[in-house]
Predict the structure.
Amino acid sequence: MPRFEAPFGCPFSLLILGSIARPVTAGVAPSSQSRTVGVDGIIGFYPNSSTLPISSMQLDIFADSRDVMLRNDVLSALQRYDARETQQALRRLSEEYPDDDSIPQLSILAGALDLRSTVAFSKHQVAAETRCALVEKITPAARRMWGELASTRWLLPLWRELAQRASSLPCRADSLDTHAAALWLQAGGWSDARDAVLTIESWRRIPAPLAWMAEASYRLDALENTWPLLAELAWLAPDRCARLVERLGDKSLDSLLKKFYASFEGAGDSTDIAYCLGFDRETRSCAPPDRGATLNDDEPRARHATTA
């Protein structure tokens, strides 16, 4: 049987388009194989000639990899945030392979680049609609193409732009998700989030801004410095505090809460967290406090707190 010599003097083991490769059995067209897009957007595979004669492959592997190359062109342009090149690459892919499964997701991501803007929002509704598109359409499409970790990195500039555009919108109870502080937290802008909270009058009496400040403080500082804010939030809005603690994922705090709940005969719901975060943070004693006395001491604050 004749031996096929691949380019660069290699035996018939040909790497196509990138560093991520999969084995392909000779006689099976690469287009029928399952191919996965890597974090860097490159797809590839290794043919193997050990099973069937080389003549059965018809040496058409280059033609079969055309869709892979076109798809990689779109992904590469997306990763550079090049809206024009993305649309051009997507058009080439759509014209040659209109049934490609990735086209719907790539179209959403290409559209997201086209809609990027630095114009400040003048209405909460427009900000809410833009945020909704980012959460419900763009994010799932990015995750499908790159996976959770890489897509999160790709989305950060879009969140930053959204936060900057919302910087002049006042805090409204019916549109909390559009406040710049909440958006900066999504973008990983901890200092900007803290600064945005400080623009809200009486933010310590409002659950949402207090939670934003607590999260920003935790990301910027140690748990010790965040503890007073968490304690205030636990009394003001225990449900919101419990969700924040879960999102923070602090092992020392989670361990402390677990020990506290094991010895505390409370209501068995989210309100119990207030009795843990409200005790002496210096001693870290898990001895349950006087439930009745603590409630009475805090009643004035609870009555004056807003519900946002």
